[in-house]
Amino acid sequence: MPLHLKVKDIAYFERPLPFARPFRFGAVTVNAARQVFVRVEIEVEGKGRATGASAEHRLRLHRQQAFALQLLAL
Q1: Structural domain of residue 38, as residue ranges?
Q2: Which helix (H) or strand (E) holds 33?
Q3: pLDDT exceeds 50 at position 60
Q4: How far apart are CA 56 and CA 42, in angstroms?
Q5: How far is CA 17 from CA 9, 24, 30, 64, 74, in A?
Q6: Cα–Cα dist 67/74, whole Å
Q7: Where would a tag sit more exposed on the chain, N or C end, judged by fewer CB atoms within 10 A?
Q8: pLDDT tens for residues 31-49?
Q9: 13 lies in a domain?
Q10: Closest CA to 37 of 18, 64, 6, 73
Q11: Torsion of CA 5, 65, 15, 33, to 10 degrees
Q12: C-alpha angle 35/12/23, rounded to 5°?
């Protein structure tokens, strides 16, 4: 029997994230990045609601996509 779910809310937030120690990427020195937060609320028919959240810096947004797929696998 397939699960029927509804995405009730998706929220994205960002904040600046200065590094305690800068690091070098070849000729470039990286001092800070932006941190992204994602919060998703879903409702699974007959099971209730669930909320999940994740955070990562912008260089790894693919993790947010993997998180969304994990929510869908409930």
Answers
A1: 5-18+32-72
A2: strand 28-44
A3: no
A4: 21
A5: 25, 16, 11, 18, 32
A6: 11
A7: N
A8: 888 888 889 999 988 888 9
A9: yes
A10: 64
A11: 180
A12: 10
10 CB contacts (<8 Å, ≥6 apart)?
38, 39, 40, 41
Tell whether 23 is covered by a domain. no
Q: In angstroms, what CA-CA distances link 45 with 41, 42, 61, 66?
A: 13, 10, 29, 22
The CATH number covering residue 9 comes to: 3.30.360
Prediction pTM value: 0.57
What ranges in 1-74 are assigned the alpha helix state H? Answer: 62-72
Residue 27 covered by a domain: no
What the block records as the tokens of 16 is: 């600046």
Side chain identity, residue 6: K
- Of 38, 41, 57, nearest to 49 by C-alpha is 41
CA 18, distance to chain mean position in Å, is 19
